Amino acid sequence: MVEGEWPYNPRDMAVTDSERALTRARGIDRGRLETRRLREELKSLRTGVMCALNMLLDLKDLRTGLHATRLAEWAVRVGENLGVDELELRDIEAASLLHDIGKIGLPDSILLKPGKLTPEEYAITKKHPEYGWAILRSIPGFERTSLLVLHHHERYDGRGYPAGLAGQDIPLGSRIVAIVDSFDAMLSSRAYRDALPVEEAVRRLTADTGTQFDPRIAPLFIDLARAQLPELLDGADDLPVGLAKILP
């Protein structure tokens, strides 16, 4: 090789702007794929956590877990009709599924009592939203859901528990869960009372609108219930007794 000469042109080794752009694009694509993968993993983990906690409810009291699954479908439909965004809708669905998770902290003697609760027992039962909040707030990604669970027994007039919140101070998701939870409970049999017919449950829900229930959400839910309950419960093995009496 002649001194001062190179077997290549150093300029040929320079990285061109187009190559740099291509490298950046590939890096961005890899980053997007990694972000997408992590999102899918988080979504799968969240679903797994909800399923596991709901199974705990089933083990504690079978009716509670099935009741929660039904509530989630109703609550999501209400949220969709209210124009709730996807993120908040996800939290509402989770709160509907897990609103009673705090009941795993209640004694079986109270939770499974085949009769009406004493005032002292009822006071203990009223702690379950706080127990649920304490459980869920410790799980990453369930912080907002835990607040909806904490307040799902508040009343629109401020006479609920545990915080005595009123009106719009109650989280929207909690107001939705309160309505669908009460309606489903009225349609289900309890050890101390029979299930109510649908029309009687609707009448009571309407009578308590503006005091116990949000006056904007309750009528919307009633309209959805009348139109969609047969569809939502089609083929279910755990129909509330109040519905089983009227559905074919």
What does this structure look like?
The chain is an all-alpha fold. The protein has one domain: Orthogonal Bundle (Hypothetical protein af1432), CATH 1.10.3210.10. 61% of the residues lie in helices and 0% in strands. The chain contains 11 helices and no strands. Helix 1 packs across helix 2, helix 2 packs antiparallel against helix 3 and helix 6 packs antiparallel against helix 7. The C terminus is likely disordered.
What is the CATH topology? Hypothetical protein af1432
CATH top level label: Mainly Alpha
The portion of residues forming beta strands comes to under 5%
Q: Assign the structural class, choosing from mainly alpha, mainly beta, alpha/beta, alpha+beta, or little secondary structure.
A: mainly alpha
In total, how many domains does the architecture comprise?
1
Which sheet architecture does the biggest sheet show? none
Distance between the termini: 95 Å
Mean pLDDT across all residues, rounded?
81
Form type: globular
Helix coverage percent: 55-70%
Low-pLDDT windows of residues: 234-248
Architecture, according to CATH? Orthogonal Bundle
Order of helices and strands: HHHHHHHHHHH
Quick one: how many beta strands? 0
CATH superfamily: Hypothetical protein af1432
Number of helices: 11
Round the Cα radius of gyration to an integer and report it: 26 Å
Name the descriptors:
248 residues; mainly alpha; Hypothetical protein af1432; 11 helices; disordered C terminus
Write the layout of secondary structure elements.
Elements: H1 17-60, H2 62-81, H3 86-98, H4 108-111, H5 119-125, H6 128-136, H7 143-150, H8 172-187, H9 198-207, H10 217-232, H11 241-244
Helix pairs in contact: 1-2, 2-3, 2-8, 2-10, 3-7, 3-8, 6-7, 7-8, 8-9
